[in-house]
Specification:
Blueprint lengths: L17 E7 L5 E4 L4 E5 L1 H7 L15 E3 L4 H7 L16 H14 L2 H13 L5 H11 L2 H11 L4 H5 L4 H21 L13 H14 L9 H4 L8 H19 L9
Parallel strand pairs: 1-3, 2-4
Antiparallel strand pairs: 2-3
Helix pairs in contact: 2-3, 3-4, 3-5, 5-6, 8-11
InterPro entries: SKP1/BTB/POZ_sf, Xyl_isomerase-like_sf
Organism: Amanita muscaria (strain Koide BX008)
Protein name: BTB domain-containing protein
């Protein structure tokens, strides 16, 4: 399998184009151009072997012909590395936006070595970029990642989420969001008072602080440790009610289906 050229000459017809210093082998048969104008000479054999969705036979046979790409050069600089037998790029050093665009390009062109690597790094970015990861997982059917990201995104405004999703996935998200709203309505049902009539601590010291933390934020249902923090020191009568309320919320949340089951 050919390797990328570290340097090479261009034909006269290419003199007005800017070429990648790494991917500019004079014997490469196919030339791509990024959306920002950088050209890449890639060997047809590498395309056939490394990328299932780069139908090299359909490309123009003349070296002077250029295949335009929608991807930026920052993405193609990395994507084409995966098509040659060399050390893979360290994706820890790239911005999340470049990583996300690379992940999409890898899926689009079925560069499977890049698909696997990008997926690994996208998983690591779930907590920092949950909505972006959710959209990525939904597009490419990564169900475990979809469910992990969904639980982190559920607190965002509904419009913010569905505006980023394909229509079919957006419909599923509306259903998922409503499941959480229904769960919230059930979760706030609690004993109105402690059993001993003389106990006044339940409403003032337990219920009000917890309702204040909930504050209409449905995502708090998935964080019982945070929700019930600082209300552990209560009287025995309140403690029993508190445990029952926490167990009730846990049961309600367990009944919420995983997002992947609704897609």
């Amino acid at each position: 399998m050919p390797g990328p050229a570290t340097e090479g000459s261009t034909s006269d017809s290419f003199l007005h184009h800017k070429f990648s210093s790494k991917f500019n082998a004079p014997d490469a048969e196919v030339t791509f151009q990024s959306c920002d104008g950088l050209c890449y000479r890639i060997h047809r054999k590498n395309l056939e072997c490394a990328a299932a969705a780069f139908p090299a036979a359909e490309f123009a046979s003349k070296k002077e012909d250029i295949v335009p790409m929608l991807e930026h050069s920052e993405v193609l600089d990395l994507l084409f590395v995966f098509m040659y037998p060399e050390r893979q790029p360290n994706l820890r050093k790239v911005s999340f936006r470049v990583l996300a665009d690379l992940a999409e390009a890898a899926e689009k062109f079925q560069v499977y070595s890049a698909v696997h690597t990008c997926n690994t790094y996208m998983v690591l970015e779930t907590e920092r970029h949950p909505l972006d990861v959710l959209v990525y997982a939904a597009r490419h059917n990564y169900q475990d990642l979809l469910d992990k990201a969904a639980a982190l995104v559920i607190g965002l405004p509904l419009d913010t989420v569905i505006d980023r999703m394909p229509p079919a996935i957006a419909v599923a998200w509306v259903r998922y969001y409503q499941k959480w709203r229904d769960a919230y309505s059930k979760a706030i049902v609690r004993p109105t008072r402690c059993a001993p009539a003389k106990c006044t601590a339940w409403s003032q010291n337990v219920v009000l602080p917890i309702l204040d933390k909930l504050g209409g934020k449905i995502e708090m249902l998935s964080k019982p440790d945070d929700l019930f923090l600082e209300v552990a020191t209560v009287s025995d009568c309140c403690s029993n009610h508190l445990k029952n309320w926490r167990d009730h919320i846990g049961t309600v949340c367990e009944d919420i289906p995983k997002f992947s089951t609704l897609v």
